[in-house]
Every structure is written in structure tokens, then in C-alpha cells.
Amino acid sequence: MDKKVTTPIHSSARRNFLKQSSAMVALALAPPTILKAGDKKVEDQIAGYFEKVPVKLEINGKAHALSIEPRVTLLDLLREQLHLTGTKKGCDHGQCGACTVHINGKRVNACLTLAVMQGGNKITTIEGLANGDELHPMQEAFIKHDGFQCGYCTPGQIMSAVACVKEGHAESDDDIREYMSGNICRCGCYTNIVDAIKDAKKGGKSL
């Protein structure tokens, strides 16, 4: 079983994060009579839970010093703040795989990952897969085998496909289908995707 990607977090940062999360849940469950509109104390309290915190991230080999709210997901950070829109927002619930990225070489659903927890990790998105103008072998294989139609899910499919091969889970068609099952293609290009992964794997190029 692959080890889960974890990130060491400073104890005080963890305590603050848990405190803020618990407080927001408490506010959400509080009776309406307590949360009166225009209550300055409550408004200030809520605003405090969304104060931005500094975080340093390495994305596609480039260091970023950012200021973000603790609640921001890695997906929203990539798309909204860094404008790396190759990572797609599909279901936003970790069920479709369109937002798949690599964290320290492991595939992760960016929509289920808090950006503030990724300090010190190496993040790779679809934009960082190619070597300049030279496409990654998996990208070339998807083009060769028409592994897409509308293309919306393709970045996530490719990121998962690269990880699938590296994990040693591309030994057969059934293996590929099983370990790519977290990535949904509404156009139904699954057969071509399997062919692309097999072709990239046997191509002899480093993935």
C-alpha cells in the first residue's frame, strides 16, 4: 500500500488550524438568535478565522511565497491565485479525478487538499510535466491514441496515468482500469486511455 502523503506542520500552526475549524463549526451550528446581523463582536470573530497566513510552496520546480487563507484548497490556489488552470475543477468532492496533481511524486486530488498544509512538499501540475516544448511521453501517447475528446478530464487522466506506471500498476489492462478508476471520462475514451498508458509504459522513456 502506498504511503499517504503527509506534511510536517508546526505544532502552533496545527493548533491554530484546529481551533479555527472548531470555532467555525460552532458558529455554523449556533442558533440564529446568537448570530445577530451587525454584531461587531461576532463579525470580528468570524473575520479573524479567515486571516491569511504565509506559506512557501514549490510548484513545478518554482518556489512561491504566498499569503493564503487556511481554508483554501490546493486546487483553488492553483487556479485562482497562481493561474495554473490546467488542473481542472470537476466535482470538487474528490470523485472525478480532474484535479489530480502530484505531491512528492504521489497522485493527490487537489480539491481535497488544503494548500496551507503543503509547505515543504514538491507539487507538480500538468503544466510542469513537459520539458519545455518537449511533451512528456504520456502526453505524446494520449495524443497518439486519441485518449480524449472534450479534453476536460485529460490533465487529471495524464497525471494519474504517469503515477499509475510509476507505482507499478500498469502490468495489464485490468490493472490499468483498476488503478485509473478514480479518474472519470464522461466522453468514454477509456479504451484509448488504456492503450495510451500501455504505449507510454513500453516506450522505454523515463516517466
**Residue share in β-strands:** 5-15%
How do the SSEs run, as a string of H and E? HHEEHEEEHHHH
- Count of extended strands: 5
Write out the strand line-up for the largest beta sheet, numbering strands in chain order.
2-1-5-3-4
Largest sheet geometry: 5 strands, mixed
Overall body shape: elongated
**CATH topology of the largest domain, which one?**
Ubiquitin-like (UB roll)
Structural classification: alpha+beta
Q: Give the CATH superfamily of the largest domain.
A: Beta-grasp domain
Summed up, the domain count is 2
CATH architecture of the largest domain: Roll
Query: Helix proportion of residues, in percent?
Result: 25-40%
Mean pLDDT score = 86
CATH C-level class of the largest domain is Alpha Beta
Unreliably modeled segments: 3-9
Summarize the structure.
This protein has 207 residues and is of the alpha+beta class. It is 37% helix and 12% strand.
Overview of the molecule:
The chain has 207 residues and is an alpha+beta fold. It has 2 domains: 11-128, Ubiquitin-like (UB roll) (Roll), CATH 3.10.20.30; 137-202, DNA polymerase, domain 1, CATH 1.10.150.120. It has helices at residues 11-29, 40-48, 74-81, 137-144, 154-166, 173-179, 190-202, and strands at residues 53-59, 62-68, 100-103, 106-109, 122-124. A 5-stranded mixed sheet has the order 2-1-5-3-4, covered by helices on one side. A hairpin with a 2-residue loop joins strand 1 and strand 2. Helix 4 crosses helix 7 (190-202). The protein is elongated, with a radius of gyration of 20 Å. Residues 3-9 have low confidence and may be disordered.
